[in-house]
Amino acid sequence: MALASTLLGLVFSLALVTTSQAFTGVPVSYRTHVVRSGETLWEIAHDVAPEADARDTVRGLMTLNGLDTVTLMPGQELRLP
Q1: Beta carbons of 62 and 41 less than 8 angstroms apart
Q2: 24-37 mean pLDDT
Q3: What's the predicted TM-score (pTM) here?
Q4: CA 19/CA 8 separation, integer angstroms
Q5: Residue 32 pLDDT
Q6: Strands, E assignment, 10-66
Q7: Mean residue pLDDT across the chain
Q8: Percentage of the chain surpassing pLDDT 70?
């Protein structure tokens, strides 16, 4: 449970850092993931934080990537913590 909380905190912290980067100009590094055909945000969330509640991780990834929906397109690039 502690690991899940830590990972969730990391995802949301990165989302906040992304927002603050626009104001500070401080570079932030992410991994880039290219969505494959048939891949879902839920699968990606599980890969990012397998011990965390996927619902929380999905919300964090949506925030981090400015997504309004969980629908992904093949070839779409996502930032991952």
Answers
A1: yes
A2: 83
A3: 0.66
A4: 17
A5: 95
A6: 31-34
A7: 81
A8: 65
pLDDT at residue 33 greater than cutoff 50 = yes
Beta-bridge mates of residue 80: 31
The 8-class DSSP code of residue 7 comes to H
Residue whose token pair is 């909380």: 5
Instruction: Count the neighbouring beta carbons within 10 Å of the beta carbon of residue 22.
Output: 7
C-alpha distances in Å from residue 25, one per residue of 21, 54, 66, 71, 79: 5, 31, 18, 30, 18
CA distance 36 to 46: 15
Cα–Cα dist 44/62, whole Å: 11
- Give the model's pLDDT for residue 3: 52
List, in sequence order, every residue forming a beta bridge with 31; answer none if it has no partner. 80
Residue at token pair 């879902």? 40
- Dist CA 61 CA 3 (whole Å): 17
User: Percent helix, strand, coil in the chain (nearest 5)?
Assistant: 55, 10, 35
Interatomic CA distance for residues 73 and 33, integer angstroms: 12
